[in-house]
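Hi X.,

You mentioned you wanted examples for the new student's onboarding notes, showing what a folding record looks like when two proteins sit in one file. Here is a clean example. The first protein comes first, with its sequence line followed by its structure tokens.
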Amino acid sequence: MAAFVLHSVNRSAQISTKQCFISHKVSRLPRIQDVHLTSFHSSTVHRWSSLPGARWLSRGIGVRFMSQGTAGRSPAGRTRRGALALAGAVAAVAGFVANACHFQRAEMASRVIQVAEQEDDILEKCKGFMSLPVTDIQVLQEKKGEMCTRMEMLIMETQAEFCRALEKVDGGKFKADRWQRKEGGGGISCVIQDSNVFEKAGVNVSVVFGHLTEEAAKQMKSRGKVLKGKDGKLPFCAMGISSVIHPKNPHVPTVHFNYRYFEIEEDDGSKQWWFGGGTDLTPTYLNKEDAFLFHNTLKEACDKHNPQYYPDFKKWCDRYFYIRHRGETRGIGGIFFDDLDTPSQEEAFGFIKSCTSTVVPCYIPLVYKHRNDAFTDEEKRWQQLRRGRYVEFNLVYDRGVKFGLATPGSRIESILMSLPLTAKWEYSHEPAEGTKEAEILEALRSPREWL
């Protein structure tokens, strides 16, 4: 229904409504035979007429909506102009369908207004992001009902919300680094390094597409995916958000979360899709109150959808984030799941939205609680040793890192963003019995229930 044209912007520039316009083509309005009789709601009219600075301009066979500034205009003047604009739009639509059936006019006008509101909603959301979305806004508008678009908007929103919360507690600012993948897609890496509270913190969004490599296809098949490509090719689209936070203070835990969507088109045009992800906590020292808050927040989100999700995904998390060559888990867990394609796409997406809504409340309170805790050199040394374990898991076992390294054109800096700025490996180190270091190590060697 519409196309947005944006002026060129800097990599981390904010979107301004003065930099865009919507071009509504009459030829792309709903077909007459697709229109059904409904009522024309006055509340919808009011919402449209009250849009600030809106006016309709005739351009040949099309109608163009342009956003103008409101400086120097009175509210009453804007309302009158909005009402006149609406009247002109409805009249144009009514004339288009008058010869078919006069009862269809109200529905046509209502559809135009609803679509304009939806597209305006996409633009409004984009203005609050850390950067422009990876996908062109015109494409997002044209495919706003498809899951790829909805998921990209969700991960962009989550990135912005989490970065703003981290900036508030730290006092520093994230650097938004846009990158492109010549094979298709790209991403936005937001990183803060050697700041006040965080030694290194990254919140990455990636949206990539193309064809699965043979190695990547083998990884999919090893997970039970029966994939039928055309001429040996499997078109795919993958997107997700991934974040790892490494604080300076050893009493502030490290957190990781990742939520992703994968879609593959098979030779007959059908699509396989699934969601995956999770959130887990890696403390340097054990704090049972922190563990309860973290796990309980995740459980409440899971319980909204299925009471079995939390216990199942908590066990899955303990199994997945396991450093086999060390015989210990990476942290005290959380939730983890993959290949989620039930009970329906809509319900699975709803669950992902609930999960992303937990990333701030399950972690930020812990940062505020411990960011000013006193610590010793020995406690800092133990933090460095535990970070070494974190590195070992990510480089040896992490599925996302493996997939990224096996995908042509992947950005290495973004893949290895999860690694800490500093870490330590000491030969054959073992904490003394009865110490706080031994306490957390015991919890990692024997995963427990925290609720």
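Then the second protein repeats the pattern, sequence line and then tokens:
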Amino acid sequence: MDLLHLLRSVFCLHRKGLNGLNPQQLQLLVVSSVGVGLLTCYMLFKKRVAKTIPMGEGWWGRGEKQLSEDTKIYPFRVETSEAEIQDLNRRIDQTRYTEPLEDSRFHYGFSSVYLKKVVSYWRNQFDWKKQVEVLNKYPHFKTKIEGLDVHFIRVSPEQREGQRVVPLMLVHGWPGSFFEFYKILPLLTERQDDVAFEVICPSIPGYGYSEAPHKMGFNTMDAARVFLKLMERLGFTEFYLQGGDWGSLIVTNMAQMKPDCVKGLHLNMLAVTKGGAGLVISLLLGRYLPFLVGMTREDVRRLYPYFEKNVYEMLRESGYLHIQATKPDTAGCGVNDSPVGLAAYILEKFSTWTDKQNRDLEDGGLERKYSLDDLLTNVMIYWTTGSIVSSMRFYKENLKSDPQNRIDSKTGIYVPMGFAAFPHELLHCPKAWARWRFKDLRSYSYMSSGGHFAAFEEPKLLADDFVQFVRKVESKKK
């Protein structure tokens, strides 16, 4: 029986289900899974995978590349002014709202009924000057790398006797910012046990207080190279990395470029889009015979029904991605000009990506997990820096060609890796799938609650999982 015929037979059995299978059909199911699994393993081992990504060079500043660059690190403070606040209030007061459909809640996007409540709080109670002081709680810096002013915060712990200090970089995604990490920072830097972390949180170029690239083509590998240069400039030769959303891909690229510098890589988002025949067989058999393909009952619960959770659901949620990956500057005109439009565009993601069931709620469930002060502070970082369009362009730069043909998709990851699988993340990645790409998986955790914005929503859960991952890595090295 050839492979194509075998796959067709397995697919038919998958559609039929296990009820009513005769012994011969069941035998086919088992033999096919083992046979194709062995074939897939052979193909994976046979395929040569690059060990590292070349660092390369880049220049993203205005004009021609300069012969020399200022490598000094300068203190930076977030500031505001009365003129900035008055302009914001004027624009808010001139907002034109659209009447929502009856009982539409968040199924059509951000409910304008609840939006008016958020905007009323923003206009009359939110204190941006106070939140600026909150932002300045931690030391901010800027430095020039590849022609860009790169912003970051650096939080050093007060080292206690017998305590080791471990360097760590945290990288955000869209539509977040470095501010997502403000709740997790004290859990990492103010620890009472034998280890604490010195944390670097940069802003991706084009996001917040990091200068936007002035040339086309800046993608995650370029961001990774910039951040590796930042860590080198700060004097770190070995460090840990953690990220979600775009941050997960950036830190993975960092580990691919300089694996000798990365002691461990911890992610809270992972999308496996490449697995060949192994992925097909895993999907077909996983629902009924998960143990044959390395899945657990929890994987089955999170993955299936597969098309509903991974295809139709993503179609409902990925409209923004298609816009930003094709014509970001066109769509960006509106949200860059209207603060209320910007808030609706960003906060809708904090609703649905925290839990898809929030679409059924009149208020989108936003205040169940977050405060309006925290949410609006993140919006204000985008608004006051005018960075929403440049942040949207990051999709265009990363998705203008087939991601599977990029060098990073063909390069293995060999550093110790840990993964925190949050139940309401947009896509679920079983441990068996993660092993296809990450060759040294040390830790895999099914988190009890939380969604896409893990550090913002569940800082203690994420911090605890990261610390236990570090302990596993460090104990194995001794």
